[in-house]
Amino acid sequence: MFFLLAYLGFAVGHPSITWLGLSFIAVGIGIGCIETAEHTAVAVLAPVDVRGSAFGILAGVQGFGNLAASAVAGFIWSTVSGTMAFFYLAAWMLLALMGIIAAARAT
Question: pLDDT tens for residues 12-66?
């Protein structure tokens, strides 16, 4: 949710230091929540004998995901506009949020 708010803030943001600051604060909160949850899930769910490998796989998936998202957003930024790049990222965050909500309701 915080990433969604941040990306929307960057996309439709007003040219003010306050608006930009609030968007960056939302990103920071989002990173803090996601990174903590991902690492906690690996620590709790991975068997002890493969826990190190599980953290390595998590880092690899995160790295690839960051590269792919940055490449696509950068392409959109370069060919369309920065605003559309942030709307693209916000759309993915909305889909992710809906998936998390659906998974939580299923349990």
Answer: 977 899 999 999 999 999 999 999 999 999 999 999 999 999 999 999 999 999 9
For the entire predicted model, the pTM comes to 0.83
Angstrom distance (rounded) from CA 56 to CA 32: 19
Please state, in angstroms and rounded to a whole number, the distance separating the CA atoms of residues 16 and 23: 11
86 CB burial (10 A radius; 0-12, 13-18, 19+): buried
> For residues 70 and 89, is the Cβ–Cβ distance under 8 A?
no
Q: Which of 30, 1, 22 is nearest to 95 (CA)?
A: 1
- Specify the DSSP class assigned to residue 18: H
